[in-house]
Amino acid sequence: MAGYGRPVVGPLSFTVDSGEVVGLWGANGTGKSTVLNAIGRGARVFGGFVRRASGLTLAYQEQHPVRLPVMPLTGRDIMRAAGAEHCEAPPALAAISDGRIDALSGGQYQLLCVWAALGSAMDLVLLDEPTNNLDPPTEALLIEILAAERGRRAVLLVSHERRFLDAACSRVLTVKAWQGSK
Amino acid sequence: MMESMTALVFDPLFRVPFITGLLLAAVLPLLGTLLMLREEWLAALGLAHLAAASALLGLAAGAPAVIGGAAGALVGGGAKTALGARGNAAYGFMILVGWAAMLLVAANTAIGDSLGRAMIDGQLYFAAPVDLNAALILTILSAALLPWLSGKLLRARFFPRFEQANKLPAWRWHLCLDLLAAAGMAVGTATLGLMGAFALVFVPAWLAFRLAPGWRWTLFIAALVGVGGYLIAFILALFLDQPFGPVLVAVLVIVAAAIAAVPRLFAVQHRTVGPRPQPSSVLTARDRV
User: Fold this and answer.
1) Which ipTM score applies to this complex?
2) Which of B42, B49, B102, B38 has the alpha carbon at shortest distance from B73?
3) pLDDT for res B271
4) Rounded to whole angstroms, how far apart are CA atoms B163 and A41?
């Protein structure tokens, strides 16, 4: 059970193995993001436990990436900040890597941030609604990128788009709202 | 005229003040970019007020302005981190506390009034070796810490969950910037004046954020504008026999306004000279054909 002032999700039990791309699916308000937050030490665990492998490192891409009104950084600067500068970006991102990020569209910026999380050398990548603002071709590109992650390291992603999860993940778990809230 | 100007600028009497100001003109804009990245540019003004108030208290007790100012600003910066007060509200309170304290100290000490005025005007031309040493230490610390700090703060800004998820001590780099900014504003306020130091933190960073094509260029442009503005102000203030602080602020604001206006001028010209757009529908809504 996890939440903030009170539990909002659970009880639920699952494991994520290295090399797996696991999706968390559920309706709005069921606490999918809270599960990621609990794993990322941002939400309180009221009952049970979150056991992380020894020395586990995490990359965490939030549902709404930080966007400042004026941001004098390029895509490469963002990649460098995330520790992903040595990772070769897909062509769609390489084309926009040298421009200022405040000139990018919402979808381009979302893809850049997701790629920055995936490009870092972290053991577990947490992605919260990575398809936000993405058009269908970019969503298809993201599915390809995530498919390439299978067998490499663990990815846990949250989405309310079931079709996307089915296409991108090796396993999809359904999250139900916390029973105690009823 | 040129000869007399050159003689003034290269007068050995002004060597210590010139180098002290030059170091600050390069370092303060860099600190300003990091404060602007955290959307805490008001920090500079808050810390400057605290530094000015504590510098006056120090002077009343016989300590150099740079020492007294540093003590107050460092306590303010450290307290802000310790209390977890992020954002401009904390600096708003610093401004109010510093302003009230500065004027009360000035009103209640024998030499406070004239020293308070000097703190506001900026007394660069009276900078002593102690001020130069403080500026040198600040420059060395900044050169050593900023490359490391910049990466950490960029990551903390754009990937705020990263540190928490990996149990990293983010407070260390936030405190590090708070203390560097406090030290910078203390040394800056004691030599360049309250508003002069604030202008060097705020204006070059503001301009660089709008013009730079990337982060490294942001740092470069900020330092360039700071140093360029300082050199112009140093010559003008000496030659026109004006207080340095207000001249520096005026130069930086004029430079910023002029540079910021250039893209707009081009945009206006482009619109006037370019082909007139053909009339076309901007929106069509139709419910049946």
Assistant:
1) 0.85
2) B49
3) 46
4) 10
